[in-house]
Please model this.
Amino acid sequence: MTNLITSTWNWWLFGALLLLVSLAAVGAALVPGSGPPADDSAQVEEPSGGPSTLPPGAAVFAGRESELDRILNARPPAARPRALICLVTGPPGSGKTELAVQAAHRLAARYPSGQLFVGYRSNTESAGRLLAEDALAALLAAVGAAAGTTRFDPLSMTGQWLNTVNNRPFLMVLDDVNQAEQVEPLLPASPRAMVIVTSRTMLTGLDADVHIEVDALSEEGARSVVTAILHRGSRTVDDTVIDAVVALYRLPLTIRHIADRIVAEQTPLALHTEPPVPLSGEGTEPMLAAIEALAPVEHLVFRRMALHPGPHVTDEIAAALAGVPLREAADALALLHEHGLIIRPDPHGYGLHDLVRSLAHREGSRRDATSAQARERLFRWTAERLVRANDGIHAPLFLGEPQVTMDEEQALQWLHRYFEDLRSVARLAINTAWPESWRLTAGLAYYMRVKKRNIHQAIGLNQAALQITPVSDEAGKAHCQAQLAALHRVSGEYDKALEQAEKATEAFNRLGDRRNEAHAAAEVGTNRYHLADYPSARVTMVSAVALHERAGQTRGRANGLGVLGLIKRATGDYAGAREHLTEALALYREIANHRNEAWIRIELGVIDRLTGEFHSAAEQFNAALDINTRLQDVNGCAWARRELGILKRILGQYDEARTLLQGALREFKALDSRRNIADAEVELCSLHRVLGEPSTARGHGDTALRMYERMRNRRGGAWTKTELGALSAAEGDFGAADSKLGEARATCEEIGDRSGEARANMELGRLELSRGQDAAAWPYLERARELYTELGAPQVAEVRSLLDGG
Model:
């Protein structure tokens, strides 16, 4: 570039540059993350272009060259299987975050698996702080793993995160931390990873390899920052101005603010000329002066920004908080950014540095008698946008008619981009006891359940909102109860779910809200199905389908038909089940609801498997797997693989069955989807029993039985007892086999599960034959033959064979 600028060609300079580049390349090969690990066998093939969530660094970075070099040249810990940890500490405004981000961008090529940024916001109000589980969920989502778990349990998420990182070269920036406990669950046990932590103070318990303490800049460093910013802004000022700046102020935040003001105003900034404050002090006088000089609208927008608990303030949010027109808010934000009072951490909104936020709070407490009205405008604006988003993603609970519609892609993009902001606003509403907090928690619940998978946190938010909703607001309470019903159901807590669903149904009925009454009634029916109360479940679901049809709700009607199909399958009416499921499939395809189309295809595949149509079953399961793969639905993919694994076991393809079932179990455990975990465990029990591996089979069966009993899932428990009984019979423990099979048979008779009753009778007959009691076996086998014949199931041939042998 020097040769081009001077319009000359200096071969000596060109050769020196080549030499320097070559030396730099050699040096890069010797720094952590770039070379092979000590154990070549542990080398992992790295994909190119791993995820990066780093915010953009400032265009001008100066004054911290020595600190930057220390991070860039840091070495991994010797003979310790963990990440390299760099801790950057210093007071607010000292440039900790910028130093960490600049270093991370320079180190990115050495850590190709991913460069991830997590902003804890530990020094903001509680509603906006990131919890440990929030950070883990964000990291898992960033690397494409399942986004959190159903129980949102930090321990299970930590295990999933560490398994994902494994021995891969990841770089993480954990910003604004105030406790070592926030960092420890995220630390990879790999010397190929690097973690840069920023904090205002030393973190007791964090064993950092490099500690860099930053404070005021040196005079030379401060001068280099001012000069670089002015040069980039094509601004020239007298040296005396720069001398005055660096004589009075050394805090990086203040220095940058002054330089930005000089560039923006195109006139020398009037500086305070009183004696310099201590160089390590706050040094906020220039920012206070800039705030005082703001026009009324800009001043109002600035101080109201501090009320927002999340990381992004958009034009719309600023307008809502300040109570001004959108155009005025947008212009005010642009001016505040131009004058260096607010930052733009990413393209999706503006933010406030913590030190500047404290100044805004100070101004607000001085000028605003109350901030309650501003916060309420924020809550109502957020609630209205959540109505639009829920309409766009086809959420089953009706929150209101949106003023402006969103399509599904727009809604999902908005929810994903601003989820931290939305959750922070909901927490703030609860913390300030806003009586309509339910509008926010109910608006987030479906997205958190289906896409984010942090069910436990969604339950907590809706329970908190329910507690502060006034008794007189029956609609608000009903919405919380309906959301809690769905959330508890997904968690396998069917009793809790049923209780909340029944309360919501009664409330919506009293209010004359037929659309939401239909949804809540469907939840009642679904939970009664899971509790094996099939007659009551059928009556309730028929009523819910009729309500949905009268309200013109195609999706609700399809959902109800799908559950009616499950009820009829559970009671052995395979023809009726197929009829309901086929009708539901047509409705889902009509409204292009692909996720639920995949669900129905799996259920139709199960009917095909039960009736011996194995080729058709495989087609349905594979079609569902293709849909769920396109939708990146981890739970749906695992579900389809489990069903394929069962089919492969029936067909005698045991190796494929083992791979599919074990893979499904791992995915269900990652999601902590308890009902699906239990279902996979019992199928693995059956597979290992067939393979002659009784110890492994019993481990899976015992685990499944404990889970079903905790969930009060009687049908699942009965099927597991049948498997365990058959296993005991194979081991020669006839007494245990007789007990388990007898319990399973009695339960299936009681709940009306004809398929389960047939299987228990067949196994009891087989047991009596093993004992040499042919006459005792005959009634069991005859009953099994009768039931399997009614069901049209292929097992009738097996029973006939046993009868002929007897």
Observations:
- The chain is about 65% helix and 5% strand.
- The CA atoms of residues 36 and 43 lie 7 Å apart.
